[in-house]
Amino acid sequence: MAYTTILTEVRERVGLVTLNRPQAMNAFNTLMLTELFEALTEFDANPAIGAMVVTGNEKAFAAGADIKEMAEATPFQMIQQGRVELWDRVRNLKKPVIAAVSGWALGGGCEFALSCDLIVASETAKFGQPEITIGIIPGGGGTQRLARLLGKPLAMEMILNSRTLTAQEALQFGMINRLTPVAEYLNEALKLAAEIAARAPLAIRMAKDSVNAAFETTLTEGLKTEKRNFYPLFSTDDQKEGMQAFIEKRKPNWTGK
Fold first, then answer.
1. What's the CATH fold of domain 6-197?
2. Catalytic residue selected from 65, 99, 113, 207
3. What are 79-110's pLDDT values in tens digits?
4. In the CATH hierarchy, which fold is given to the domain comprising 201-248?
5. Catalytic residue at 151?
6. Which of 128, 131, 193, 242 is catalytic?
7. Which letter does DSSP use for residue 207 in this model?
8. pTM for the full model?
9. In 164-183, which positions are buried (b, 16+ CB within 10 angstroms) versus exposed (e)?
10. Which of 108, 109, 128, 141 is catalytic?
């Protein structure tokens, strides 16, 4: 499919989406959001793809939402657009999504990165939720995900006083997985995605769902989710193949069945 605001590419078993509005620092407008989630949904449904990477450019991952589109919007129009609800769709993707972040990840850009399963950042990455400076609050999960990841004090400072986190701080506080030089952040994210994509597809799906449940439910409910995802895997061909390959000391041949 031809897109206007994003670029897509397949690298072996990894689907790559590049946000491509450099003149606007990759700010999310309606078209970009539509195209981004169309591409991710298409990759998610493709059995040849095992993981996905979303990136921007060296200067900006995504510098928030396109304020010009939102400035005169009414509450009803914002609800009708369902803009902020789109971030919830990342949670529902079956395959892992990795954010490869360099430069600014602000507002919706920060929220999208947080909604991904893993984050690889360059040393110039900066994360922030500056919505308070334009008279609103984060609406794509920022208040909730930051509080869970970083704790109340730091989340409050970022959201109430527009504090940004450097890449080094994000690593220190456990917000990102890996920190690299600018020249390596995308390659590192693609390498990580390729490693994940080489594993048993059904197990990856169940593992993602189980870990996410830890942030969304009580411990008791989370453990129930884990068990519901654990037992059915013993009916899969991949479980039999994986364990037999381990016994035979060879590399498994996954079929996703």
1. 2-enoyl-CoA Hydratase; Chain A, domain 1 (3.90.226)
2. 65
3. 777 677 777 888 889 999 999 999 999 999 99
4. Lyase 2-enoyl-coa Hydratase; Chain  A, domain 2 (1.10.12)
5. no
6. 131
7. H
8. 0.93
9. bbebebbbeeebbbbbbeee
10. 108
